Amino acid sequence: MSNTAGEYVFAYDVQPDGTLRNRRNFARLQDGAAAEADGMAIDNDGRLYVSVWGGVEVFDPQGRRLGLIPGSGPGNLAFAGPDKRTLYITGGTSLSRVQMIAQGIKTRGK
Predict the structure, then answer these.
(1) Which of 11, 53, 67, 84 has the least C-beta neighbours within 10 A?
(2) Tens place of pLDDT per residue across the chain (110 aa)
(3) Domain segments of the chain as ranges
(4) Which residues of 46-84 are buried (b: 16+ CB within 10 A; e: fewer)?
(5) Computed over its alpha carbons, how large is the radius of gyration of the chain?
(6) 40-42 and 48-52 as β-strands: parallel, antiparallel, unpaired?
């Protein structure tokens, strides 16, 4: 879960009934609370993509920051296309499309 007003992305344990427990810090945003995290997506290898003011921060499955895909302000993002190798990013009045080596989760629709 992104925390728009905070410096961390949270992780939870999902219970069999769908409720959440054990909130914990998963990844620290480079710009902390000023990043204003918004949308998130996950690729097929478990990397997390988080929309922030500077673009999209990328984290490995353990929450270590891998880098930044530069772009405009925060919005939503999703992998799409026939091979799920296109990352679409919305922000304010913009829509960006980034061809990726990484692939979105194959079992999800879109």
Answers:
(1) 67
(2) 677 778 999 999 999 999 999 999 999 999 888 888 999 999 999 999 999 988 999 999 999 999 999 987 778 999 999 899 999 999 878 888 999 999 999 876 65
(3) 8-99
(4) eebbbbbbbbbbbbeeeeeeeeebebbbbbebbbbeeeb
(5) 14
(6) antiparallel
Q: Which two tokens stand for residue 57?
A: 């921060």
Tokens coding 63: 């929450």
Q: What is the pTM of this model?
A: 0.90
State how far the Cα of 6 lies from the Cα of 15, in Å rounded to an integer.
Answer: 25
The residue to which tokens 């999800």 are assigned: 108
3-state secondary structure of 34: helix
89 contact partners, CB below 8 Å, separation of at least 6: 51, 55, 56, 69, 71, 75, 76, 77, 95, 96, 97, 98
